C-alpha cells in the first residue's frame, strides 16, 4: 500500500468514527466513550500525515509509534462500546477491521524501520 492509499485508509477510519459517534445514544457513558473514540480515531490519520513529513528515521519511528498507539486505543474504545452493549457489534465490524489493518501495517513498518538502524 502506498502513502496516498494509507492516508485515504486513515481518513476513512476517521470519517467512520465520526459517523459512529454521531449515532451513539444520548447517555453519559456513551458520550464519554464516544469522545475518547473520536479523539483517538481521528488522530490516527493526523499523526500518519505528520509521519510522512518527517526529516529523519528516528522522527518517523516516533510518529509511527503514535499511530500505533492511537490505532490500538481506537480498537479498545470500539470493543468497550460493543461489549458493553451500547452499540451492536455489526455496527463496528468494518471500522474495527480497517483500524486493525492500520495497526498491523504500522507495526510492520516500525519493524522495518528499526531493522534499518
Notes on the structure:
It is a single chain. The protein is an all-alpha fold. The protein has one domain: de novo design (two linked rop proteins). The protein contains four helices and no strands. It is elongated.
List keywords for this structure.
117 residues; mainly alpha; de novo design (two linked rop proteins); 81% helix; elongated
Mean pLDDT: 96
CATH homologous superfamily classification: 23S rRNA-intervening sequence
CATH topology: de novo design (two linked rop proteins)
**What is the chain-wise order of helices and strands?**
HHHH
Please compute the radius of gyration using only Cα atoms.
Answer: 15 Å
Largest sheet: none
Number of helices: 4
For the secondary structure, the number of strands is 0
How does the SSE layout of this entry go?
Layout: H1 3-22, H2 28-51, H3 57-83, H4 93-116
Summarize this structure briefly.
The protein is 81% helix and 0% strand. By secondary structure, it is mainly α.
Amino acid at each position: 500500500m502506498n502513502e496516498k492509499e494509507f492516508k485515504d485508509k486513515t481518513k476513512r477510519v476517521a470519517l467512520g468514527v465520526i459517523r459512529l459517534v454521531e449515532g451513539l445514544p444520548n447517555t453519559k457513558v456513551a458520550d464519554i466513550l464516544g469522545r475518547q473514540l473520536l479523539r483517538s480515531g481521528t488522530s490516527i490519520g493526523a499523526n500518519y500525515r505528520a509521519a510522512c513529513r518527517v526529516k529523519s528515521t528516528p522522527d518517523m519511528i516516533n510518529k509511527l509509534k503514535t499511530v500505533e498507539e492511537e490505532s490500538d486505543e481506537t480498537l479498545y474504545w470500539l470493543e468497550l462500546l460493543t461489549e458493553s452493549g451500547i452499540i451492536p457489534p455489526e455496527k463496528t465490524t468494518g471500522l474495527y477491521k480497517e483500524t486493525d489493518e492500520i495497526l498491523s501495517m504500522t507495526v510492520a513498518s516500525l519493524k522495518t524501520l528499526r531493522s534499518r538502524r
